[in-house]
Amino acid sequence: MSTVAIRDVRKSYGATPVIHGVTIDIPDGEFVALVGPSGCGKSTLLRMIAGLEDISGGEIAIGDRVVNDVAPKDRDIAMVFQNYALYPHMDVRQNMGFALRQRGTPRAEIDRRVADAARILGLEPYLDRKPRALSGGQRQRVAMGRAIVRNPTVFLFDEPLSNLDAKLRVQMRSELKELHQRLGVTTVYVTHDQIEAMTLADRVVVMNGGRIEQMGPPLDLYDRPASLFVAAFIGSPPMNFLQGEVAGADGLRLDDGAVLPLSARLPGAGRVTLGIRPEHLMLADTGWPLVVSVVEPTGSETQITGRVAGHTLRILVRGRTDARPGDTLSVAAKPADLHVFDHGTGQRRDIGH
Questions:
Q1: HSE-CB for 67 with a 13 A CA cutoff
Q2: How confident is the model at residue 68 (pLDDT cuts 50, 70, 90)?
Q3: Residue 160: beta bridge partners?
Q4: Nearest by Cα to 95 from 35, 148, 19
């Protein structure tokens, strides 16, 4: 196992910069997820850690060694790709042991490591099968097994679950987390799926336009998003947003002139964006009148979409409800669950409760 230090790392393609001075220190054994929309630079950063992309500026260290000019095969890392990258003419056993054979590892040691990895990943019944005879989840396990047998100091994952169906993604997510808890290897994981990032990682790095927007433990990002971008990206269903002017003690004056009363005094003055997560809007005896337009039951909870003063809001209700389109419900939120962002900068403003 090893630490990874990313220090003021930059990347440009010709005159076009795509990574703008990123700095991340990853302690030994930590699981870090790089998350963000397509084009934010997360995969490029991962490929620079792996040595598959040159660094235009800054440095990357794995353990005590700066690896800017070290070949990928000499970095003591193992990478798992989105498309599995298995050799179709080799069976599972041969695929998992391929890198060790290339290194000249003794046959007995290869057999031992492959057997250990197969046992961990539940692949023992499939060792003699070719990739075409495996399901998507089984192929992904083989790709992970090939990484495990190398005993690397760092695992790198590039969107490893994106080709799987929704049910299998949830299963593999749980297996990945258990695998990390068992092996304790430093891991950098790239995904566009914020649920994956939140559930898997010790720390989440949200990237936007080649820069770090915010990083920290998953629940810190959920509870205190530093910017409008992070607030919109983290959380499912996504956060509700209302734009307007601070109306002093009265609340928020919306664009149509209606004043939304709040139980907390908004900080500062001027134009702001108010954010409220659907799960933090509660049905109440008194509150904002929400006219229901859509009701989506899932069994354990119900998502309701409606309009308040002409603005669309979604609420997430635990369990079931008798609400129907056209009904008017009263909804409210606790002051601690309100998020306020400056309209100009998109940065968080703290609320005094």
A1: 23
A2: very high
A3: none
A4: 148
